Amino acid sequence: MALFITCFNDTLFPRTGQAVVRVLERLGHQVEFPFEQTCCGQMHANSGYQLEAVPLVRRFVRVFASYEAIVCPSGSCAAMVAEQYPRLAELAGDPALTAEVDTLRGRVHEFASFLTGVLGAEDVGAYFPNRVTYHPTCHSLRSLRLDEAPLRLLGAVRGIDLVELPAARECCGFGGTFAVKNPDVSTAMLADKVEHVLGTRAEVCAALDNSCLMHIGGALSRLRSGVRTMHLAEILASS
Question: Do 72 and 157 have their domain in common?
Fold first, then answer.
């Protein structure tokens, strides 16, 4: 199998990718990291640069074509491949690319979904004696329909005190360029999310997307709340 780290994690949160590898190797699997991988094109496509994203689709298909499974610690990037790649291939007017995308996209898995849905694993041997709450990010919840898998994985962690996040299904306000283009609305949404996180008295807020965790974690840091944010993979890699 291959690790698709995503450009966001590779640049800002490399420990998440390392955690994914530790968990998968603990479960007895060998993980390869194709060095030619780059951005999946989500930033381009979501900003209106549809055709400019097509070369990145072609590159992704070429780099990962030989792998039976591609594991990605990002709900938004996994959703990009599953939902937008077929449309971009069709927009490019390239039947061959469309066929390649159709063949590949079913082998791209978000990390939590891969553990529970493909490997059938819930207890991955993790130990994390902290009070944790979980924020279901929009892409993982609405695009990938990952309602229970992350919570089952967290619930199987030894020593954890898992507490429910009120209004968990509400967006944190990040949304990529949404936070830049609509800062007032984004900040108001973030304030509600942080209020709910603090209300749980959790030590850690976990999620499947570091982009959302960066947004939430920035506010928690500015408030000097003492609450950390962690990707699910990092908690599962703890022992």
Answer: no
* Residue 69: per-residue pLDDT: 97
The H or E element containing residue 76 is: helix 75-79
Of 75, 92, 118, which residue constitutes the final position of a domain?
A: 118
Predicted TM-score of the model (pTM): 0.93
Beta carbons within 10 angstroms of residue 79's beta carbon: 23
The proportion of the chain whose per-residue pLDDT surpasses 90, expressed as a percent, equals 90
Residues 12 and 108 in one domain: yes
- Backbone phi, psi, residue 102, to 5°: -60, -35
Predicted pLDDT of residue 143: 86
DSSP calls for 110-125: EHHHIIIIIS--S--S
Nearest Cα residue to 202 out of 218, 226, 169: 226
The pLDDT of residue 182: 84
Q: How many residues does the chain have?
A: 239
| Best CA proximity match to 169, nearest among 142, 144, 208 | 142
Do 15 and 113 reside in the same domain of the chain?
Answer: yes
Residue from 152, 23, 10, 15 nearest 1 by CA: 23
Q: Is 79 found in the same domain as 164?
A: no
Tokens of 10: 């590779």
Q: Are 161 and 235 in contact (CB under 8 A)?
A: no
Residues facing 131 on adjacent strands: 161
Q: String of b and e for 36-58 (b: at least 16 CB within 10 Å)?
A: ebebbbbbbbbeeebeebbebbb
Do 83 and 145 reside in the same domain of the chain?
Answer: no
Asked if 13 and 114 sit in the same domain, the reply is yes
